[in-house]
Amino acid sequence: MSDGELRRIFQQHIPAFHWQSVETWSTGQGVPDCNYCGDGTEGWIEFKFTSIFKVNVGAEQVGWIERRMRAGGNVFVAVRRKHSGGPNKGVAVDELLLLTGHAARFLVTGTLRDLPVNLVQGRWSGGPKNWGWETVRSKLLKS
Questions:
Q1: Tens digit of each residue's pLDDT (9 = 90 or more) over 73-115
Q2: Residue 65 or 89, more confident
């Protein structure tokens, strides 16, 4: 569950999009996990999973995302933060954060707690059935 099942969850909740999983570890490092196209808009999503507030983002990922955005491409980072709770973690959490591609560089050294508000496209809690899928869809369609 390295992506927190986000690839499957996005495809399930936004079925009208054409989704293409991308695995290029041997030919093009840093390429996001998934390409999508909907209503004439194409973009990329890097899916991340964490149980804490730290998200692992590699230098190759930051480089690819920033190059694509400079060329006018749509790139997002979707983070699922999920844990079952406990004495050290507090209440159980299952949330989705949809971030602009600019968040990739910030996440190399920063945490989800410290995200500048301009990098956050949306934040939903309560698990996939409660995440705001119509809002997610509309954010992915904005260039």
A1: 999 999 999 999 988 888 999 999 999 999 999 999 999 999 9
A2: 65
pLDDT top residue among 122 and 142: 122
Is domain 6-141 classified as CATH 3.30.470.10?
A: no
Per-domain residue ranges for the chain?
6-141
Report yes or no: 21 and 47 within 8 Å, Cβ to Cβ.
no
